[in-house]
Amino acid sequence: MTENIYIGSKPVLNYVTALVTAFQREPSVHVFARGRAISSAVDVVEVCKRSFLKNIHVDEIAIGTDQLGDGDDLRNVSTIKITLRKTDYDS
Amino acid sequence: MTENIYIGSKPVLNYVTALVTAFQREPSVHVFARGRAISSAVDVVEVCKRSFLKNIHVDEIAIGTDQLGDGDDLRNVSTIKITLRKTDYDS
To answer: What's the ipTM?
Structure first.
């Protein structure tokens, strides 16, 4: 199974903790972010790989666009989805 | 051949223009960004795909970490490299 983690405007280490915890339950995690939080999503993954979980690798990165609001308030926001996977299920 | 475009803190449309121009010369372009500009890089690619060049697709997205400065000023900054390719060289 795969867990989803949504990156927002909290400190990066909050999401790193969530990611480490998620990998204790599942071998694969999706990291989602929109707009300005996209940079933070990359930070979360890189900090996690560098300092906490050396046995995860990036399976896939997808970018896209979400439409938010409607009518005059309709706007496009960029999205990212980073799929991470443990390289060794036993460790 | 492949052109490189480095995304910084200028308005997104400046880089969209650069990307459209680069695709007039080459079938493939690398979009690079670091730190906060990573979100802008995704914006540039998405705006370009949506509004200007409908025949480009994302070949690969790679994320990583660069070390900046040295000594006490040493710090890590996240990076992204988005490889784009024209799906039809003649259009």
So the answer is: 0.89
